[in-house]
Amino acid sequence: MSNDIDEIRSALRAMLGDTSTPEHVVAAESAGWNEGAWRVLRETGFAGIGVPESAGGSGGTLTEAAVVLGELGRASASVPYAEHALIAGWLATRAGKQLDAQVATAAVAPGLSVAADETLRGTVQRVPWARSADRIMVIIPDDDGASVAVLAGDSVAITPGRNFADEARDRVDLDGVAPVESWRIDADGLEQVRLRTAFARAALIAGALARVLELTVRYTGERVQFGRPIGRFQAVQRHVVKTAEQTSLATMAVEAAAHGEREELDLPAAASAKIVASQAATISSAHSHQAHGAIGMTKEYELGQLSRRLWSWRDEGGTAQHWSRRLGTAVAAAGTDAVWPLVSSGTDAAARSRA
Amino acid sequence: MSNDIDEIRSALRAMLGDTSTPEHVVAAESAGWNEGAWRVLRETGFAGIGVPESAGGSGGTLTEAAVVLGELGRASASVPYAEHALIAGWLATRAGKQLDAQVATAAVAPGLSVAADETLRGTVQRVPWARSADRIMVIIPDDDGASVAVLAGDSVAITPGRNFADEARDRVDLDGVAPVESWRIDADGLEQVRLRTAFARAALIAGALARVLELTVRYTGERVQFGRPIGRFQAVQRHVVKTAEQTSLATMAVEAAAHGEREELDLPAAASAKIVASQAATISSAHSHQAHGAIGMTKEYELGQLSRRLWSWRDEGGTAQHWSRRLGTAVAAAGTDAVWPLVSSGTDAAARSRA
Amino acid sequence: MQFAPTELSASEQQLRDDVREFLDAELPDDHVPGLGMAAGHDPEFSRKLAARGWLGMAIPREYGGHDRTAVDRFIVTEELLARGAPLGAHFAADRQSAPTILRFGSEEQRRRFIPKIVAGELWFSLGMSEPDSGSDLSSVRTAAKKVDGGWLLNGTKIWTSNAHRNHYFAVLCRTSPLGEDRHQGLSQLLVDLHDENVEIRPIPFLDGTHHFNEVHLDDVFVPDDMVLGEPGSGWQQVTSELAYERSGPDRFMSTFGLLKYFVDTYRDELDAQQARIVGEVTARYWTVRQLSLAVARIIDAGGAPAVESALVKDIGTKFEQDVIELIRDGVDGEVDPDGETLLETLLARAIVSGPAFTLRGGTTEILRSVASKGLRA
Amino acid sequence: MQFAPTELSASEQQLRDDVREFLDAELPDDHVPGLGMAAGHDPEFSRKLAARGWLGMAIPREYGGHDRTAVDRFIVTEELLARGAPLGAHFAADRQSAPTILRFGSEEQRRRFIPKIVAGELWFSLGMSEPDSGSDLSSVRTAAKKVDGGWLLNGTKIWTSNAHRNHYFAVLCRTSPLGEDRHQGLSQLLVDLHDENVEIRPIPFLDGTHHFNEVHLDDVFVPDDMVLGEPGSGWQQVTSELAYERSGPDRFMSTFGLLKYFVDTYRDELDAQQARIVGEVTARYWTVRQLSLAVARIIDAGGAPAVESALVKDIGTKFEQDVIELIRDGVDGEVDPDGETLLETLLARAIVSGPAFTLRGGTTEILRSVASKGLRA
Questions:
Q1: Is there a contact between A235 and B233 if contact means CB atoms under 8 Å apart?
Q2: pTM beyond 0.90
Q3: The complex's ipTM?
Q4: What sequence ranges are listed for the domain Acyl-CoA oxidase/dehydrogenase middle (chains C, D) (predicted)?
Q5: Which domains does chain B have, with CATH numbers?
Q6: Under a CB-based contact definition with an 8 Å cutoff, are residues D295 and D308 in contact?
Q7: Chain A contact present for D371, CB below 8 A
Q8: CATH 3.40.190.10 applies to domain C125-232
């Protein structure tokens, strides 16, 4: 499996080296996404990682999915992989359906109402990539779980929106839209959607941070001030080391949450991944920018494009604060004697569920 | 007035140089207070600063009181000046009474009940210096203000307690005690008690921090490692500068809150002083200890005795968090357009009250 | 350290009231506040301020100034910043160029430039940084060669804010070759940004906006009388200049609007955590402001508060960043760069600009070295 | 950086279960947890652990050890720390002295010391620091003069934890005069703390408790066979030794009890802010622990994770301090050093001890320099 992972990583890195160049990243910010990169990811099957082959995907577990997300984050590649494969693809598979879409996106949509004739009405804010999606999956939570409805992209009204990196986060208005298809999921299914959304953003963050660290190490090794590389100054070393530490934490939290051949994420691991990654995004961007000085504040230099993603992704899928409250409530409910078993559960989800 | 202040400061510093030597500080930690220093402060009248001469005090405003507190904090002098003069003395004066006490202390005591015959029953936790006080003033809040009752020190049961610096913070149990005297205060009076208590601890903190900074500058200038004073290393400079910054902030907040010939403290200024000073205590102690290394962790070295006081005083009189919530609630209630007038009110309490 | 709390005199309070009244009248109802020094570049607004006597306040009357104090200037500045007023056209010229020319320039330079700056008619950029010279100013490579009647200037300056809008900039350069003492042989030349041999290229900011420029100087002829002071005294000039710009309200007020509009948004439904945030931020603003004001008083009393300035800048710029994180915590959700409320708008811009607060005017690392040495003195 | 998540094997899980069961049985109901390495010094407890095979786990069987892995040792250690078990008697000997003697000592030294350490019968202190030598170990002044059959040792060691309770300590000293290379001519001597020429004076800790000592060496005779390895190889020994002690659970677990007893105290009335604190601390523990465990796996695979160890120590010790502040924030009141609950007791002790976490075993500043260089390699 670790060979597979290395292969996926190096193949993706090469592919994104061609399709998510600085020019592509700039162009994607006008378009709201990187269509070319997505097309290649689809053609090569990487877009289907995490979806079983039986359901039209490329197979692979959450570990492989995290590798894909890490490379996408690293390359600032604005593509709907998380929504298409990990949410929409996974929900369809779970319902025994094939997702027939070039670009699917998905969003939890508490603001929608379902009429007696099953048509949908209302507004969904900040739907990733909606303008480019031929299928929009809305997940409408209720007391027993949620209704899932698949909408045709051209059946809804879209108002473009964006995040800091100019990735599409669009408003979707539904005025009595009939879904292409719909079904029910239970509360566990709804929780998985939320955990997967958080996890996916954490994995993107970890990938971006690895690149931020490389840039910071390189820049501070090359930039000379007062006759020597600035990386020789203790004050700058502190920024580099803090960046490395946060990168290690985010990466470890993500990899450990996905570790094993698991199909499902659990709350402690996915929440921890998002909490640690979101905090790492904040701390690392402060230190890496301070180490870089003014050059880091320019649009051309790669650090800025990564920072703008980090500032978006730390909040998307739930803030560190949101997940901390959820995790803390669960820990307290489990009780005093469950705290250490949970903390020391490592990659063992079964140990967490017993805690 | 500033001449007066300089005189008070230098006279006190000399006096405490004799009565709060390292040996006295160690002895005070066994006894729970520094009786000798207090006796001299009484004899010389410094213990009465902040209480009008007409009421048996030495006169002076909150600015002079802050100077006294600053010197006491700086010298780690464990004496009941804040409680004796600024709370008990002030409450007595306000009620037109003379406080006849060698050592008075005071505490807000929500846990006490007053019987029909005016006797008191219940427990007051963590009363400063109770074991040494001949008069204990309890302030029992209710819906309209509070009852103030003066108790004889020998009429109550005392269980010794302490803070981190082994300053007496005793439990006082009342089993149907008849007060020596009692009266009512209104809600404004009760609020002043709380603001004065917070302010006094902030002023002690500011004084202690000034000394922490001196020690840190001196130590890092003298201690040699790798062939030069450690203060030449950027990493150590950062600790020194952060200590200086926090000292400046705490000192300014305290002095500005007291500035002018005011009799009363207002919520924004007193709360700000305690918020800023309590946070400064936490931040400075971290940086000063890191700059000092192991020597700072020993009982003999002066830094430790200051740190243990800072770790106590930051919480006593209300934590930074407590006062932040109170101040924040007041700011929000005053409304959007009042925010800037309040922030920019400077030393002008009238401007704050208009905000 | 010599910080003392200070109260505003009656005339200072009057000045403040006047500025507040002016801003109430001048700023439109739909005014979108700017973030501190990065606020809008509005020549008309700057001229109106000048007409009220609020530019060049601490400049002598003989150069068109108003002979007022550093505290008066502080009061006007903080009121402008509190409202996010469009001070971009005059700010650098007023804060830095006019005092520098007054202090180091020839009488002719003073008469030529200062009255126009004070009138809000002449706008300056700063020309210190270079591609290979950031904190280490003595390593600048831009150089001027002596020619008949002046100098031929070649090199590249970078991070030049508003060069595309302003009239002049002061260029730090070598006027004699690099010798043993790196600090010798530097000068500042006052260069017309509209000169045909000056090429200005935008450096797009992180979010695509245009503040910074790269300025290429290709055989720009600078007459002798445009050398600031004596040739070779550039190092002394820029180091004292850096001290001017350190501790004013522009070093802690950039994100004030976040507090104001946070209160505006949540005041009726403030939860305990949000109340705590409002209280903490308010307390710290109140205190930092007093420190900054105390420095202005020291300057007015003829003091040289170098350590105090450095400490206040370090405290203030870090605080500006802390405010962003504290308010973001209170908002607790996705920040929409196209958000509909002023709070959302300001927060989004602050997040993107925040890293620069501790870089401009000398990085935190350099400041701490200055402060640390001063504390031992 | 080469951190990889790792799962515990069935036998590792069994070991953990065994340790948990042992601690449930051995720790009394009224056990007051210690704070990490500063927990109680209880020879009987250490001997019981030894009897279970849980000391010297990674030491070869021929020296009385158990030929187990760094991960096995990690598992035992973290379980002990999670319970605040009294590991003070054996901890330094087991973590540091036994592996050092194994690696650098003579065969005779190995046979003489290691089996007793592994049995929990022989306790070691560390003798690196001196009054004038903190982070800069090469500047030690303690010196040994060659005499017939051994060395005469003179000098003073400081911050020697538990010297008043332990049997031996390894003294870093000069065995040949300071030359051009400061790192040459240093050796470690194994010194009997009960020698009549060794004087041990307590250095009271901040709160009056006794952990530290000053150890005076006045013409202490040390036989030749008590020089660790070859004379002159002390520098290489201590620098590699520092790497051992960097990244284990003792670097992030010292304040774990705060989380546990915070949950215990507030679980039924947790407000939103407290829930947030519990969640954040839990998430960070879970992640830091995996990093530390990953280092143990690298060691077992024969790797040399110097950078990883330094990063984990920096992360972990800072985190131990952060936990104190986060939990203090959740308690929000005066902390009573004589408080009645375990939460109060632990919190008070943690506040007083906390500053030491980022000092012991090499300060943060030194670590960052190590890590920074490694990241470029």
A1: no
A2: yes
A3: 0.96
A4: 126-220
A5: 1-101 (1.10.540.10), 102-179 (2.40.110.10), 188-345 (1.20.140.10)
A6: yes
A7: yes
A8: no
